[in-house]
Amino acid sequence: MAPLSSSETWEFIDSVQLLKSVLEKLHGLLSNPPSLFVDLEGINLSRSGSISLFSLHVAPVSKTYLIDVFGLGHKAFTTEDATGTSLKSILETEDITKVFFDIRNDADALFSLQGIRVRGITDLQVMEFATRDSQPSRFVSGLAKCIKDDCPMPQYEKQKWLRTKDRVGALFSPERGGSYQVFNERPLQKIIAEYSAEDAALLPRLWKAYSAMLTSNTAFWQMMIRKETLKRIEQSQSQKLYCTYQVHGIWALGQARGTEGYEVLGQRSTLGLSLSTE
């Protein structure tokens, strides 16, 4: 098969040389508003699974870099540019804001598989929960629901995204006869690349939408979101964590208990988030 060709909006990064060129473009970016938005794809994405793709969307240039973790291995995170900057150093610094949607499984996988302790993280799933009315649901929302309900985009664009999501779902969902191994196939199927790039590229729109909803008492909500995100990261890196992971970051433990907040070894969440998505 022919190598995967990139597009104007995304680029597949499968060599150390290409990765260095990406790292060189990340200097001097703003953190307020955030410039870097991240989404990971993998097989059983957690400490017991593997990372296939690291999708890095750079908002100021509207471009997503699909970094081939499956092919590059540890070099995906340890490769440095001329200034000593690496993905690992970017992920571990407080000085650069990185936006994820549901950091839990990503933080677990990055820490357990790559030795990376993420810092400077904003979790969009926590932001969405904070925007709800005074009597919110116990459950957090998944990315697909947030995009469908909250992402400001033309209807035709949303329909295109839904069609792509459905087609890719048939490729990777075991329930539909697919396999998550499609993320490790090389050359990567173009539709998989487009799906991964689009998910990351939509995160800035969600960030803007939720930020606009939290303009009242902004400092308070920033503190609460930061505190909840830190707790998620700490719990995901705990050696005693006993939650059962699923590919899309759903921590199922606690759903049957009917708890109003998720609980890991007796620790309750600040915002009362449930382990499960709705």
TrEMBL record:
<dbReference type="GO" id="GO:0003676">
    <property type="term" value="F:nucleic acid binding"/>
</dbReference>
<dbReference type="InterPro" id="IPR002562">
    <property type="entry name" value="3'-5'_exonuclease_dom"/>
</dbReference>
<dbReference type="InterPro" id="IPR036397">
    <property type="entry name" value="RNaseH_sf"/>
</dbReference>
<protein>
    <recommendedName>
        <fullName>3'-5' exonuclease domain-containing protein</fullName>
    </recommendedName>
</protein>
<dbReference type="Pfam" id="PF01612">
    <property type="entry name" value="DNA_pol_A_exo1"/>
</dbReference>
<dbReference type="GO" id="GO:0006139">
    <property type="term" value="P:nucleobase-containing compound metabolic process"/>
</dbReference>
<feature type="domain" description="3'-5' exonuclease">
    <location>
        <begin position="23"/>
        <end position="210"/>
    </location>
</feature>
<dbReference type="InterPro" id="IPR012337">
    <property type="entry name" value="RNaseH-like_sf"/>
</dbReference>
<dbReference type="GO" id="GO:0008408">
    <property type="term" value="F:3'-5' exonuclease activity"/>
</dbReference>
